[in-house]
């Protein structure tokens, strides 16, 4: 199977070129043979709160890193459709699924990159036969991603690793201590002291539009955020607000931001966590997982009317112009079963729905505000409610 790594790059490039010519404006702006997200940077507890009971239901979820798809297995839905325009994100999900089916928890963490490992390519050799031909060709052209621990090899994760080196300049001023607290009141008092002119300068510099554009590899992160919103201030404020309400050590994304790696395993996402890994793995044998590489609007049209009970849209609206945004939510309404639940995230600012769409959504503004504070991203705004 290791020979698979030496075959297929030409077909990968041809497939990516065909995909780019055929796609609509969802998550465009980077090469479609690039993994943009590789870890799970949001808190799936937010979706689970928004959805309520999912047992036996049909769910549509944006693939992204695949983490949220796997996390939702814990709620025992009947079917999950995982959708992403970027085929590389779906290949990553395939790999995570194949590895989970075959490996115990410790081996899974070593293979993905949470823990040290020297034989990931050998492990992949035993898994490759479980992947689609397209996924095998992709990883043949990107074997170093697997060898280095693919969980931390997305373009965003590599940016965060570089960002962590900058933020380590703040460690002598107490930032490392921030992740040692197990008492929220003590941490809250510490955050007040930490909010200094020096720390604001370092953190806000790293979060300016120009810096993100140059280094993050994510062109959609702020494309449709109104210019009057100061991105660096919004991110900084969101992170500090989160730290006033949640322990820093329990946020795996902030571990990556400040250390470039996961430092506290009990806070790992559901599908990586020792407390829930075996239950998630068991659900892989029962839940029907359908992986689709296309725009969400096209997939919803393919699924037909009254196809889904829940929609996890994270954070696709950040990447759509106004016309595509309206098309997406029109398609969601058409594919929703009566009483279906919607959980949509967007970076910094969630664009309003069209009035005709808004009238068909019974929103929960209190829950939306709570989730915006609780979510590991620290920057997502939520649109949550029941479709009618």
Outline the low-pLDDT stretches: 1-29
Classified by CATH, the class of the largest domain is Alpha Beta
Helix content: 40-55%
* Classification by helices and strands: alpha/beta
What do you see in this structure?
This protein has 388 residues and is an alpha/beta fold. It folds into two domains: 272 residues, Vaccinia Virus protein VP39 (Rossmann fold, 3-Layer(aba) Sandwich); 107 residues, no CATH class. It is built from 20 helices and seven strands. The chain has a seven-stranded mixed sheet. Strand 4, helix 18 and strand 5 form a beta-alpha-beta unit. Helix 12 packs across helix 14. The longest helix has 16 residues. It is globular, with a radius of gyration of 20 Å.
Q: Briefly, what is this?
A:
With 388 residues, this protein is an alpha/beta fold. The protein has helices spanning 9-22, 44-51, 67-72, 87-102, 105-112, 120-127, 133-141, 143-147, 155-167, 175-178, 184-194, 197-206, 209-215, 231-245, 252-259, 277-284, 296-303, 322-335, 355-358, 365-374; strands at 58-62, 79-84, 288-293, 308-313, 336-347, 361-363, 380-387.
